Amino acid sequence: IANAHTVDFYTRDVWRTSIAVNPEEVLSAVNSTCDHTVEVEGNENITFGFCNVTKKLVDIAALLRAAKAHSLAGLGVCVQRTAMMESLRVMSEDCPDGISDGRLVPEEFMNSKKAHEVPAMSEVVASLARCCGVKQVIDVGSGKGYLCSFLSMQYGLQVFGIDCSSTNTHGAKERNRKLKRFSKAYRKHDRVRRNQKVLPKDSSSRQTEKEEEKEKRTNECHTPDQKEGDAESSQAEENVDEWKVGTNLFTISGQSRIVEVQSSVSPELARDHSAVLNRLGEWASDASENPFIGALAPDIVEHTSPRVPPSQLSPEERERRKRENLERKAQDGRHNSDNGNLFSPLTSYVTAQTDLGTLISELEEAVMVGLHTCGDLASSSLRMFGAKQELRAVCSVGCCYHLLSEQFDPDGQECEVDVCGFPMSQYLREQACFCGRNARMSACLALERVAAGGGLPMESLFYRAVLHVILQDHYDAHKSGKRVGNVYSKASSFVDYVRRALRKLELDASKLSDGVIQGYHDLYHPRLNEMVAFNMLKVTLAPCIEGLILLDRLCYMKEQVTKSSCPHD
After folding, report:
1. 198 and 303 in contact (C-beta within 8 Å)?
2. What is the DSSP letter of 201?
3. How far apart are CA 385 and CA 368, in angstroms?
C-alpha cells in the first residue's frame, strides 16, 4: 500500500489488487472514533489485517491497530518536549540562561508556521548549548536563516548557517542585517518602559521650570522686533530638534516625545521641508495605532524631555553632554563588535566528510542543528556529529524523506554505505532493509493535518491517474520520463487539464476529441472513492514509515556510542 503510486492507481487496478473490502468500510473505520486498540480474537491466516494467502487487506481494524502500535508514540520511545526541557534545565541549573534583554515577537517577521517551530526549536538548542557550556551553533541547511537569526538575537549565540545555495545565503545575510536593526528596538523596549516607571514624580515640575528658564533667557536675549520675527522659527524648533537628511534620521519632538524614523528620502522631498514634516508628524501621531510602527519598531516612540539647543547650555552642561555622547558612541561600538556578527551565513555543500575547520576559522566546541534538513543532509549531519569531537550535541529535524538515497534500492544505483541516507544503522543494513521512494513520500504526510481537515488534493490526483489511462490507451508515452508538472492549477476542467498536459508532453492533442476525453472522466469518477480510501490508508501508515526512518537514525547513534565505549583491537 505504501509503495503504490497514485499515478498507476487505475492502470494497475491497485484497489482490487490490494484491498478485499469496499471503500466505504475503509473510510468508516478510518474516520471512526472507536478504540481500535482493543485486540479481538486473531486469525492465524491474517497478519496485520492482511490475508497470508491472497496478500490482500481483509481486516481494516487490525491494520489500524498495528499502525498505531508501530508508530513512535505507540512504541513508547518518545518523551514530551516539556519533560526534555525540564531535564535540560536541571542539568544546566548552574549556567546562565544567556537570553537577551527583551523577547522577540517572531510573528512580526515570519509566517505562522515558522513562528511556531523556530522559537520552540531555539529554546531546545539554547538549552543544549547551555547544558554543554558552548556558545557556538552550526546550522546545516540554514536556508533563509530564520533559526539562525532567532538564536543569535534572542539567545546571544554565535551561529554559523551553512547552506548549499548562494541565493539562500545572500538572502539570509541581507535579511539578518535588517532584522538586527529591529532586534535593537525589541531589546530596548522593556528598558524604555522600565525607565518610564521609575521616573521621579517631580520630573514634570522640573521640566516646567526648565521651560520657564528657557523662555526667560530668550526674552532677555531678543529685542521685541526679534521676538516677533523669531516666532515662526521658535515654533519650528519646538517641533523639530534635529534634521539629518544625510543619514535619513529624522527626530521630531512634539507632545514630549521623540519619533525616530529610518527611511529613504529623496533630495526633492528633503528640500520640501513642510511636506516631510507633515508626513512624519502623521507617523508620530499614529505611532500607537500603526501596526507596522507599533509592532516592528517599539523603540521609535520614546517619551523624553525636549532637547535644549547647545547655544542655551552653560559651558559645564555642554562639556557634560559632549562627554555623554562620546561614552554612548563607545558603548555602541562595543555592542556592534560583540553582537554585530553573531550570525554568519556560509555557502557550502555539506557531507559527512566536510571539514568544518576549513569553513569556520574560529570554530570552537559547538552544537549542530538542522531544521527541515532535506534528504541525505540529515543523515550526513548525524555522521558528522559522530566524527567531529568539537560537536558536543546535535538537534536535527529531518524532512523530504522521499529525497533520501537508499543502499538497497532494487530500481536504482546502490549508494556507498557511508553516504546513503537509509539505512544508517548496522542493524538494518544486515537485513538489507529497503523502504522505497513512494513509501518514503508517504512518510511526509501528516496524519494530524488530514484529521484536522487539511486533506489531500484528491481531484488533482484523480485527474493525473485518469490521464495516465489515456496515455496508456492512445499514446506510447505513459512510461515517458517527461513530467506533467503543475498543470492542474491552471486548468478550468478535466478536458482542459488533459489538453494542457498533452501539450506539455509534446503529444498530439488533436488526436482526441473533447467527448472522448470527458468519457474517461465519467467512466472513472464513480471509482473516485477508491482513491480517497486508499490514500487515507497511506496517511494512516505514514507515522510507521517515518518511525522506521527515525528509529534507524537513533539506532545508528546508539551504535556509535557502543563503538566508542569498546576498547580498540
Report:
1. no
2. T
3. 7
Whole-angstrom Cα distance, residue 458 to residue 525?
12
Taking the CA atoms of the chain, what radius of gyration do you get in angstroms?
33
Question: Cα–Cα–Cα angle for 261, 263, 265, nearest 5°?
Answer: 125
Contact 148, 176 (CB under 8 A): yes
Cβ atoms of 347 and 378 closer than 8 Å = no
Burial of 352 (0-12, 13-18, 19+ CB in 10 A): middle
Residue 80 burial by CB count (10 A; 0-12/13-18/19+): exposed, middle or buried?
exposed
Bridge partner residues of 398 (DSSP): 373
Angstrom CA distances, 71 to 59, 337, 542, 550, stand at 19, 49, 9, 11
For 403-533, list the strands marked E by DSSP: none
In terms of C-beta density within 10 A (0-12 exposed, 13-18 middle, 19 or more buried), how is residue 555 classed? middle
CA 57 to CA 49: how far, in whole Å? 6
Question: Which cell is 167 given?
Answer: 541565493
Q: CA 302, 304, 309, 315 torsion: positive or negative?
A: negative
- Give the integer Cα–Cα distance in Å for 519 and 340: 65
Residue 207: per-residue pLDDT: 52
Q: Where are the alpha helices (DSSP H) in 76-202?
A: 81-91, 112-132, 146-155, 166-197
Q: What is the pLDDT of residue 300?
A: 38
Spell out the residues 6+ positions from residue 240 whose beta carbon is closer than 8 angstroms to its own.
251, 252, 253, 277
Query: By C-alpha distance, which of 300, 299, 325 is closest to 310?
Result: 325
Distance CA 379, CA 353 (A): 12
Q: Mark the ranges of the chain whose per-residue pLDDT is less than 70.
A: 33-42, 94-109, 166-307, 322, 325-341, 412-418, 451-455, 477-481, 564-569
pLDDT computed for residue 365 by the predictor: 93
pTM for this entry: 0.68
Cell numbers representing residue 338 in the block: 560583540
Angle, helices 514-524/458-474, rounded to nearest 10 degrees: 120
Biggest alpha carbon–alpha carbon distance for the chain: 112
Cell of 375: 534528504
Amino acid at 331: Q
Q: What is the DSSP letter of 103?
A: -
List, in order, residues 6 or more apart from 211 with CB less than 8 Å away.
Answer: 306
Q: What crossing angle do the helices spanning 23-31 and 60-69 adopt, rounded to 10°?
A: 40
Q: Which residue has the cell 486548468?
A: 491
Residue bearing cell 480517497: 532
C-alpha cell at 281: 508628524
> From CA 552, how far away is CA 558, in angstroms rounded?
10
Residue 141 zone, left/alpha/beta (φ > 0; ψ -120 to 50; rest): left
Q: What is the 8-class DSSP label of residue 371? A: E
What length does the chain have?
569
Residue 52, CA distances (Å) to 69, 191, 544 in order: 20, 70, 21
Q: Shortest CA distance to 13 belongs to which of 46, 43, 56? A: 56
CA 349 to each of CA 91, 142, 204, 505: distance values in angstroms, whole numbers, following the listed order: 35, 12, 61, 33
Separation of alpha carbons 496 and 516, rounded Å = 13
